Amino acid sequence: MSDYQSPAVSRERLREDFLRIRHQSVAACRPLAIDDYQLQSMPEASPPKWHLGHVTWFFETFLLQPFVRDYPAFHPQFHYLFNSYYNTVGPMQPRPERGLLSRPTVEQVYQYRAHVDAAMAALIEGCEEAQWPALRARVTLGLNHEQQHQELFYMDLKHHFSLNPLRPAYRADLPQPPAAEAAPLGWIDGAEGLIEIGRAGDGFAYDNEGARHPTYLTPYRLADRLTTNGEYLEFIQDGGYDQADLWLADGWAHIQRNGWRHPLYWIEQGEQWQEFTLGGPRPLDPATPVSHISYYEADAFARWADKRLPREAELERELARRPLEGNLHDPKALHPRPGHGQWYGDLWEWTASPYTAYPGFSPPAGAIGEYNGKFMCNQMVLRGGCCVTPQAHLRPSYRNFFYPRDRWMFSGIRLAEDV
Amino acid sequence: MSDYQSPAVSRERLREDFLRIRHQSVAACRPLAIDDYQLQSMPEASPPKWHLGHVTWFFETFLLQPFVRDYPAFHPQFHYLFNSYYNTVGPMQPRPERGLLSRPTVEQVYQYRAHVDAAMAALIEGCEEAQWPALRARVTLGLNHEQQHQELFYMDLKHHFSLNPLRPAYRADLPQPPAAEAAPLGWIDGAEGLIEIGRAGDGFAYDNEGARHPTYLTPYRLADRLTTNGEYLEFIQDGGYDQADLWLADGWAHIQRNGWRHPLYWIEQGEQWQEFTLGGPRPLDPATPVSHISYYEADAFARWADKRLPREAELERELARRPLEGNLHDPKALHPRPGHGQWYGDLWEWTASPYTAYPGFSPPAGAIGEYNGKFMCNQMVLRGGCCVTPQAHLRPSYRNFFYPRDRWMFSGIRLAEDV
Amino acid sequence: MSDYQSPAVSRERLREDFLRIRHQSVAACRPLAIDDYQLQSMPEASPPKWHLGHVTWFFETFLLQPFVRDYPAFHPQFHYLFNSYYNTVGPMQPRPERGLLSRPTVEQVYQYRAHVDAAMAALIEGCEEAQWPALRARVTLGLNHEQQHQELFYMDLKHHFSLNPLRPAYRADLPQPPAAEAAPLGWIDGAEGLIEIGRAGDGFAYDNEGARHPTYLTPYRLADRLTTNGEYLEFIQDGGYDQADLWLADGWAHIQRNGWRHPLYWIEQGEQWQEFTLGGPRPLDPATPVSHISYYEADAFARWADKRLPREAELERELARRPLEGNLHDPKALHPRPGHGQWYGDLWEWTASPYTAYPGFSPPAGAIGEYNGKFMCNQMVLRGGCCVTPQAHLRPSYRNFFYPRDRWMFSGIRLAEDV
Amino acid sequence: MSDYQSPAVSRERLREDFLRIRHQSVAACRPLAIDDYQLQSMPEASPPKWHLGHVTWFFETFLLQPFVRDYPAFHPQFHYLFNSYYNTVGPMQPRPERGLLSRPTVEQVYQYRAHVDAAMAALIEGCEEAQWPALRARVTLGLNHEQQHQELFYMDLKHHFSLNPLRPAYRADLPQPPAAEAAPLGWIDGAEGLIEIGRAGDGFAYDNEGARHPTYLTPYRLADRLTTNGEYLEFIQDGGYDQADLWLADGWAHIQRNGWRHPLYWIEQGEQWQEFTLGGPRPLDPATPVSHISYYEADAFARWADKRLPREAELERELARRPLEGNLHDPKALHPRPGHGQWYGDLWEWTASPYTAYPGFSPPAGAIGEYNGKFMCNQMVLRGGCCVTPQAHLRPSYRNFFYPRDRWMFSGIRLAEDV
């Protein structure tokens, strides 16, 4: 865990972390043309410009306004333009129309960032001692929020670019791993018994990771690596998308209605397959983990393979045993890699667990309580982080969640089975 | 549990049960005009005629065809018209178009029933001994299936009639309970610990009730009766439908999009409220349990009341302790009643548990495996049966499931809380 | 023109005509099962029961209520259930939900008819002399209205039945014409010049047929028969549905979106084509006029043939010269027939003329003014009647109108060209 | 008529006109930020960047490729990205997704323009004499095409900006006319008789303006100015949007479904009305012509006023008598102005005439034939140009056309009546 998430962090250290993490958002935009900042390819995928503004609004709304006396808003309408979904705070620009905001310009949004960064730095240094613990906690939340949007930035941009027939590369210089055989698939046994899951220790965690509580596991096994493109191709070639009995009813209806025949970014070129990546189109590598998969597809694949998807407690138990390292954002591959283990990073792993409240879950009062709790319906939990997740953002207890139909995020498959 | 579900049931007894349960479907239709049999008010709600045909098709397809040598289908296209969702068996009439089947006529559907009933009675009596256990099990499944559709018949018909501006009564002679005060709300404590849930014993149960398995409960309390119309009205009058922070994000979006302001069958008449029932419109009774509530509304009400909905294991534990009796189909009130306890009957109780596979869940091979398993996504579990559930159809481990947006079934609210 | 449309018609004669025409609606329903009366396969196609009720409502609303002192409505809610689109009269059952009216039952609707018929007969006989001209005119309108719905009855029923996989025949005993060669296509020349079109004489006509007015025609030619199935099949086999440049932009978008590849009721059976008719499915006869064609298809066919569709003035001029006879309702073929001329009957002929107001068009005041005028946008004129049009209902100046996408009515193609 | 449209224009003059008109597209973009170039607020309204690219593609596709031997395309995919609707030429970027083209960047589109401009200038100077007449005609078409998109640029941009809560001004310095009384409404009589309409002389005209042909007019009168905001406000205040009998059936359905209560760009601020303009929001001026009105609204207003809309022949006759001058693009008001006459400019005037082929209409072969003809269905003709129409682009016979529901263009109302 990075220092800024420790309860003992100093003001100086937090200020440094703040500026460093804030800077990472800007650095991620460096390869963009001004033209790219406003793309919105679907309601779920926000424009880069909006991400930059929204995370700044978060600090302005939840830090500067409550903690700085008479803080004047940078712009009287930004609270409307850059609110995402916090109804308690007020109304907001409808999500599907974020791409219509040509104004403020990119330049003005960077000015907004600079203004808020300066005010934040001053606040961290100068706030009264009595406020310091609350401030520190809130800044930590804000930085985790910013890191979440850094992840989303990559996922959203990939989707935006994928719909441009020119298929632009976010970065044309991304290294491509050498061709390799996939590792043979092995299994890790998980014993029956009562375990505890949920937030542990006093470091930062989202509210949805608590309360820590006992849960009972029946015996199971987990695959020791992610499912590969090659394995998924077998499923396709075996008619996986044509056999109704492999699919959940909602999944079958969804793939029929949308004409899905393969993962989101696969492109059939005659007899060859390509995959669209943040480095542009590449030949599909059979040993690389299959990515950009919906829950429906992950579940159908598992049924075809006569396995199932892991439960979130099974994965958390395994993650808690292992070092927090892997193909995360920091290597900047920006794509999953062939390999083994792959517990952290590479791809968010779909679990068979719907996203619900843990026993004793209690969201904070006010708008911050809208952060996680109101999404506890119709979504599934994913675990483990992916190739665009900042390392300092993860924990074993981290619960990501998406709708079963979603697949623009870096999602993948780890098989499991009952013993 | 009724005899027909016992592994020791005799052929004679099963034949009698078969004919009795089959007859109940016909008896339920007695108050209908021919004109009513074909109503389809929405894709989810099937016409009475279709229910009558479909349950018959189930016996023809899963009993007569596999168990009777050279059984000739009653009609070469009924397998298409009356298949509901069994893709393994073949294609089917699209669900939203069941109301377009003016042919076969009602009369022909009754001929179909008579034909299949006779063949089934002969099969039960005459099948070879070696086949008897398999036959008995499959007939039991078919009868449970028919009972499920008997329940649906009432729910669907209520919806069909509700959209007719004449607001017809299914039965004008239904007794209306005398006005009464609601019982004060008490609480039942549930202790922490490891319990077992799922199918118990060797009687009939659906595949989704297994495997029986341990689950850990943290301490909780359950309300000792259902939430009443009067209590729900307070929620409305307190602006419950206008406060975004009481709602799940998907629920808020749903009530906005559909303009929901009250339970499905409430009708505002000036300053008074009426409720549409199977006996036609009635003044809203404050002491009667609130019914025809979506999960979104149940969840919002619970949040407003500073409580939560029960988990399915909590309810099952309580149900397993209590006699299987209540306001079920047999009293033929066809509407919930004011009261106390209300563990079985009155209304299906929304739980906070998404409908997922139990550890060790294993659906049978073939089409029968489509019965329950493929719906294990996006739906929530409801427990306890309702005022149109046949008593013999229920068990403590019975898991009903609907989408969070659904509310045309007899659904209601029991509050719970963590201790 | 039938007597009842003459300004000199006697009371006795009008009463007889009234009862005769009213009876024809009932007679048309004789082959139906009760089950069929409530079918609504799409919003545009109303159930037989609703047609029977609506035309009766028309007499109750526009005759009995204004002309009979203290006339009590047969039922207090029928004005809501059976109003079609007369906003001036009050709100109405939404058109897409006419199929949900299982009540009133068919029997009750026939009681409604009997009640209104008796009251109407008494009114015709007994009304005061001063009211007689107004009454006579309004009854004539009501009878024309009923005849229009008799036509619609057949078109709607054909659509309802076509969606039933059993493909029921409305009448299994309909004669099928012997196989024949199509007549060779000849042309009728139309000279340049100023002509008059619109209602002529003092017989009944709808308001949209006036005012009679001059219009200038440039020289043209009209085909001397309708386009046949065989000719349309050539268009299909030549890739007509795949060539964007043959289609209007809206037509091309429409056939893409809906996957149209052939006329509405054509059924491809291996290498053979069948056509669904009111007598059930039949082999496609190449010499029979192609029917159930949208304007988009008629227009694309004409472009493919290097011709165009006629203007309505061109067709009216030709119709006015010819005897009002043909394959209309009275022969009761209920299907177009191979032949020559085919000016009246067989199929409504699409014209290239949008449905707009003639110079001097002036609808009557009040609800009756909603009859025709408010549809003068987005629709095209069709001329000449069809095989289910009552002969007494037609005139040379008769203007029918449908949306370019519509094709459930008996519509066909007559080619034209500039000279 | 501008010189470049004359058949006698010299090469030098055409080259100058070409460069001048091309430059006007660039000049119109000068007030934009890069951020603005990619806005697409609805499928019908294209981004500025796309307009710039598309008009350039038109010259590349229809001039450089056919007239320059071995002309290499500037970019191999621009034919796909910038084709609008010419199916004959090949597939194209779907219209609703033009806003997703962040690449090519604005800079690259300007390079594309420069490249094509240079090649075009060389072609005009250097083409062989035998090709000159065909080239000249095609360049003239291309320039008219570019001018049409210059008009659309303003209309589309106004719509894009209107959806930004910041309500940006395209030009903050636009002059606002001084408050004035509206001129009293007078009437111009039009005599009965046969007239000729359609393209006249040998100057440029679109194919849809031919053939010139006789048409017969019954006596009528035309208002001598456009309907004002003040007059339209009376219609609103008189409940115009609540009275079904004022509306076409399709119009009534449309305003209900979309919740329309006023013209597109009116904004209610307490008791005051504002109007969004290319200069930002302004107080609504009662004397200014009401603009951004759908056909449905124009027609309902006329019915409320007991008038009708003009036929296109009536307007063309009047336009042909008058000097081609008015509040067009050149004064650069970019908004209608109070006044009198207003025959050319200010607002495109809805006519009661559906857009159909004139007798003898004959589109050119090939893709150019798709320019106008395929839209001759479901749209209405508008006449007279507007405040963003280049003066050199208009003619008395000019036929603009839009769907009855459209209102993002500068459209307005001139009343008419039968005499």
Please explain how this structure is put together.
The structure is a homotetramer of 419-residue chains. With 419 residues, chain A is of the alpha+beta class. Chain A has 2 domains: 3-162, Four Helix Bundle (Hemerythrin (Met), subunit A) (Up-down Bundle), CATH 1.20.120; 187-418, paralog of FGE (formylglycine-generating enzyme). Helix content of chain A is 32%, strand content 13%. The first copy, chain A, has 9 helices and 14 strands. The first copy, chain A, has helices at residues 11-28, 48-67, 78-81, 106-126, 132-162, 229-237, 249-258, 295-304, 312-320; strands at 187-190, 193-197, 213-217, 220-223, 266-269, 272-277, 280-283, 326-327, 344-345, 348-354, 380-383, 400-402, 411-412, 416-418. In chain A, the strands form 5 sheets. In chain A, strands 12-11-10-13 form a 4-stranded mixed sheet. A 3-stranded antiparallel sheet of chain A has the order 1-4-14, with no helix packed on it. In chain A, a hairpin with a 2-residue loop joins β6 (272-277) and β7. The longest helix of chain A is centred in the middle third of the chain and has 31 residues, at 132-162. Chain A is globular, with a radius of gyration of 22 Å. The relative contact order of chain A is 0.14. The mean pLDDT of chain A is 96. Chains in contact: A-B, A-D, B-C, C-D. The A-B interface holds A 85, 87-88, 194, 213-216, 218, 244-245, 247-252, 295-296, 299, 308, 352-354, 356-357, 359-360, 369-370, 374-378, 404, 418 and B 85, 87-88, 194, 213-216, 218, 244-245, 247-252, 295-296, 299, 308, 352-354, 356-357, 359-360, 369-370, 374-378, 404, 418.
